Structure prediction request, 756 residues.
Amino acid sequence: QETASDLVPSSPHFLSSLAAMAEKTRRKVRPGAIEPDPLEAAILVHYEVEEFLEDGRSEKKKAVKKVKVTSLNNDCDLNMVAQDIVDKCKLISQSKHGVVVECLETLLQRLGGGKSPDDVDDWEAQWNAQRRSALERYVGESQISMDGMTISLDNLETYLEMLYEESMEEKIKGTFMILQLVRDPDNLEHLITNEQFLGALTRIFREEAKKSMDLVINIVYIFFAFSNFSNFHQFMTEYKMGEMVVKVIELELKRDQHRKEDFANRSKDLSAEEAEREAKKLKITKKKQDKLLFVCIHVLLNIAEDITVEKRMKKKGITKLLVQMLSRKSEELLMLTITFLKKLSIFKENKDEMRECGISSELIRFLPHSSDEMTMAAMRLMLNLSFDTEIRSDMVKDGIIPKLVSLLKRPQFRHMSLKLLYHISMDDKCKSMFTYTDCIPMVVNMVHNFPEKFVEKTLIALAVNLAGNVRNAEAMADGENLNSFMSRLFQTKDPLLAKMLRNLSQHDGPVKLRFAEFVSDLAALVRQTENPDLLVELLGILGNMTMTEIPFSQILVDYDLINFLHQHLAQGASEDDIVLEIVIFIGTCVSDPKCAPIFANSQLVAVLYDLMADKQEDDEIVLQITYTFFRCLQHESTRDVLLNHTQVVSYFVDLLYDKNAEIRKMADQTLDLVMEYDPEWAKQIRLRKFQIYNAEWLQAIERDEGLAIGGFQGGRRKNMDLSPEEDFQDEMDVKSMRGMIDAMQEEDDDDFGYRD
Prediction:
């Protein structure tokens, strides 16, 4: 059983100094709160040390000990690990064993094992609730001597006087004393209303910020203490604390860049030993700078609760500064930076600026990161950004797809990976990239083995998008996969699974051919289901079955589909999406010559004609009905019904005026087919086309001769009368035109004046 854990104090120098003083002083250690570390796999133990000095005075100091847990996983016994920690850490009594177990459970949840929270938001809320522990840790790690001074609000003037001393050490010490005061929330309200205090603090910050990093860190931590309470934010805004903090961040990033360039230039002339020493100094400075940047970002994140303040930060360039900080190494700083960027990313202006700064390439390196929390935070930010098409494209270019597929194998990242992959799969040009990864086999396997009745929406949505690509479809339907999908569909009647199968069935070739054996079962399910969402998808699959070998005539009879179609095409009986799929299905069926007599003997042809007029504002339905009639005209039985029992030809002529180019094209092809089969109609159609295509010329004739020429006005009309026996002389009684019309009627095969 793994029970080893490392006990690493967060401040070894502080503890060693306490040991050195033990010979001259007496001390009492009082253990305090025990809580999980908000960023690492560790437990924080708060404690207070009271030292009794030789002169009788006492001094209290608060500190935090960090107990790192290196062996925490889903298989370990939490009670044994907790007992091991209690035995090794003298600050934790046996009575706190249960508290330690609770902390370990929280850490295990965050790492993705054990009882997972309902959503990652729970972890984020918990982390935000513990942010203030950063102040306690900083104070505990500080090496500033108190010189026996008692921290009291009564001594505030003394601390402020220290800010005016010439010595920088005194100024730093004065700010540290004030920092001790703001640790007590009861002092904050008095301090924030003290104009002398705020004026002095902000003045020294503006004037001395470039001279001492320690001074700046102390003051920013004071700002941080106030920023944790929303009711103090207006005072911080009045004294422009946020603006000053932004300037500090900008200054430190410039300094860091300058140090790097200077070191790179000087290292060429340094010996190996000197270069190593300089590199070590640079590393120490960078670590200290990370601490300053960390608290600066904390302050800005807190006061950015007010959207007005956030907008001001945006104008000061905070977005660009945050993106620059993604290249740093400190995990705490990176986590805070990503959290802030996620908050900013919900606004288009910030998102666009992040794209211009190349945030995609910066975030990709966090997939994965050694810290699971960091990986999850980066994925959440990328999810926000992935709604932007250009950023999605950048992510794909940077190689995000294989990284997400790899993370798909890890349960704690699976849901977020699926969301990101779904967004990427919306772009048609990206769908083919999934073919060359393990994504398709994994998605197919997850769909097959999903434990609940309906497949989880994000997972099946990704599968639906992937099925839209022909190569992906072939991989998804390979082997026994299609049989398993169909079996699950018949058992669960999952509408989204049916949508995925519908996308698979749309591709001509071997995939579509494999659906042929399931057509009868799908028709049976169509008759059984009462779910309109499922019905739409089932009809869509049947509508895609354009193979000639499918016996639709037998299926129509065996499952009484004619009556079923009648019921759903009745006015107001079904939603438009169901009506549309029924029309497409009829168009597929009527391609089979054996189905034509069945439709001719029913009232479906007349129903479709009435539906065409009723749905004249719906372009898609009108287009599909026109195509279905085009198919019906190819068979004698249905052609007779259309030409002799409806006025559909007049409607097709009217459709030649339609604004939709596809409808005009389909109507023109259908009229050509009418002309081919019926010479009488051919004369009238030629004349109508002549009028349509030469309307401007006819209008010019009318203006020149002052004659009234009738004609169509365009647009769709429900009822139009046009028959082979009708005389057109009442429309065109112009003598100059009659000869032309007569000539056109005498020459049936001529295309006089007709431009197609």
Observations:
- The mean pLDDT is 82.
